[in-house]
Amino acid sequence: MPFASVPPEASHRVALLEHVPTGELLIHEIYRSVQGESTFAGLPCVFVRCSVCDLRCRWCDTPHAFNRGERMSRESVLAQALAYNCPLVEITGGEPLLQPEVFPLMTELADAGKTVLLETSGAHDVSPVDRRVHIIMDLKCPDSGESHRNLWANLDLLKPTDQIKFVIASRRDWDWTAATIREHHLDSRFECLVGAVFGSVQPVELVNWLLDSGLQRVRFQLQLHKVVWDPSTRGV
To answer: What was the pLDDT predicted at 47?
Structure first.
């Protein structure tokens, strides 16, 4: 099933993070499931979901992470993630890069031998991210309402092992995506992923647009966790 659609949130404030001291993070949840997206889809994965986001995409499917979380020491987050004894760990949100302690946390996870994924909006500088981390970065399409926040300089900072994701809510979004991929030669530099917003674009429509475009190295994806579980289920 494709991405869920929810009403936009008005406030972009990140005031909750102002009271989080050095050495702590604001965490919404930590759990083990299967990876639902990217080239790692289907693998068991531990998810560390950080609280707070400064974007309000119109189709966001995790608004519950905007304003709620538990303060945890970085050591506690690391210990809880490692306790699952799972080779794959994803740092997600919210927007993880709003929290400075995320950077040493990712390094510590990589030092522990984990394959570390970072899901980020692409609105924040990725240069401080440990080079061992696999970055899965959104480029926001026009219908998200946040495409003006894309930090295009990030494209020159990403590695060939990183991935770029586009969430498609309309034909306009698809045309913008195809043009962006071609303009920046993204499909020859990174893995490019495209998925559909639930209720706005049917998966078959997006597949047909992809096939008609002639783009050969762009991967269509569904959110597998929303196929296995009810789309409203949390912690999966």
So the answer is: 97
Q: Strands, DSSP E only, in the chain? A: 24-34, 44-50, 70-73, 88-92, 115-120, 134-138, 163-168, 191-196, 218-220
- Whether the pTM exceeds 0.85: the reply is yes
Confidence check: pLDDT of 6 > 80 = no
- Structural domains of the chain, ranges and CATH numbers in brackets: 15-228 (3.20.20.70)
What's the mean pLDDT when you consider all of the chain?
A: 90
| Chain center to CA of 81 | 18
Q: What DSSP letter does each residue of 206-218 carry, written as one string?
A: HHHHHHHHT-SSE
User: Terminal CA-to-CA distance of the chain, rounded, Å?
Assistant: 14
The answer to whether 160 touches 189, Cβ cutoff 8 Å, is yes
Distance CA 93, CA 44 (A): 18
pLDDT tier, 64 (very low <50, low <70, confident <90, very high otherwise): confident
Q: What is the DSSP letter of 154?
A: G
